[in-house]
Design a protein that fits this description.
By secondary structure, this protein is α/β, with parallel strands linked by helices. The protein has two domains: 3-111, Tetrapyrrole methylase, N-terminal domain (Cobalt-precorrin-4 Transmethylase, domain 1, 3-Layer(aba) Sandwich), CATH 3.40.1010.10; 116-243, Tetrapyrrole methylase, C-terminal domain (Methyltransferase, Cobalt-precorrin-4 Transmethylase, Domain 2), CATH 3.30.950.10. The chain has helices at residues 18-25, 63-75, 94-103, 116-123, 159-165, 178-187, and strands at 3-7, 29-32, 49-52, 80-84, 108-111, 137-141, 168-172, 195-200, 208-213, 226-230. The protein has a five-stranded parallel β-sheet with strand order 3-2-4-1-5, with helices on both faces. It has a five-stranded mixed β-sheet with strand order 6-7-10-8-9, covered by helices on one side. The radius of gyration is 20 Å and the shape is globular. It starts with a strand and ends in a 19-residue tail after the last strand. Bound molecules: S-adenosyl-L-homocysteine.
Length: 249
């Protein structure tokens, strides 16, 4: 049997792929992350074993243990769905899981998902590229912070280089280090007025959006999970508007 590394999408259960839904529907075992739409688990048969390996801050489950669990489950011959938030290969450590399965000789298949890097901005009315406004988008983790700050990790993103490429920056896992990230971009010459949007729980009914500028990013008070969009597109809001509320002009 095969272990399927399935992208669950950004949160709205409707954004799971048809292939992902089909596999979930015939799963014997579902191994899932914390940030997945809970409704998705209802797609699995009632008889399926559901294993939550969500890494709760403070009680980390080591990636090594998850890898080992997937190898063990894969060897049982049951149909294993490893359900991961967004796309499995975008900051999801799906690549490491795939490598561990390959090294153990367990067959696997990757089922891509809709990444929050693009879907969360879209849900807030922000196209990550836009003709005449932004010709590129870079997706970067803010988890490692900046190399200079306390808690920053060597090998963190080269924010100075990212500041000069222009275009759109989409920062995942960036809220803890948002102040240092903004500072690093400003120090490297990105302008203080650069539009910024922070999208919390995009695509779900818990979605909240804060619009600000690079100068205001440090003061944005939204909890994780949140996606930070930096660049001129962050000022766009391309929602189709319904009829104006009663009393509005
Ligand atoms: N593989 C995932 C990303 C995993 S990293 C993907 O492709 O989407 C986890 C980070 O993704 C969070 O810290 C947050 O920055 C972002 N994220 C995940 N779900 C989100 C959502 N619904 N809205 C906004 N950001 C989200």
């Amino acid at each position: 049997m095969t272990v399927y590394l399935v992208g669950a999408g950004p949160g709205d259960p409707g954004l799971l792929t048809v292939r992902g839904a089909g596999l979930l529907g015939s799963a014997d075992v579902v191994v899932h992350d914390r940030l997945i739409g809970r409704e998705l688990l209802d797609l699995a048969p009632a008889s399926a074993s559901v294993i939550d390996v969500g890494k709760v801050p403070g009680q980390p489950i080591r990636q090594h243990d998850i890898n080992r669990l997937l190898v063990e489950q894969g060897r049982t011959g049951r149909l294993v769905v490893r359900l991961k938030g967004g796309d499995p290969f975008v900051f999801g450590r799906g690549g490491e899981e795939a490598e561990a399965l390959a090294a153990a000789g367990v067959r696997f298949e990757v089922v891509p998902g809709v990444t929050s890097a693009f879907a969360a901005p879209a849900a807030a009315g922000i196209p990550v590229t836009h003709r005449g406004v932004s010709a590129s988008v870079t997706v970067v983790t803010g988890h490692a912070g900046t190399p200079q700050e306390p808690g920053g990790v060597p090998g963190a993103a080269d924010w100075a280089a990212l500041a000069v490429t222009g275009g759109t920056l989409v920062v995942l896992m960036g809220m803890a280090h948002r102040g240092a990230i903004a500072e690093a971009l400003l120090a490297a010459g990105r302008s203080a007025g650069t539009p910024v949007a922070v999208v919390h729980w995009g695509t779900t009914d818990r979605q909240r959006v804060v619009r600000t500028s690079l100068a205001g990013l440090a003061a944005v008070d939204l909890p994780a999970p949140a996606t930070i969009v930096i660049g001129p597109v962050a000022a766009l809001d391309v929602h189709v508007r319904g009829t104006a509320p009663t009393g509005a002009p």
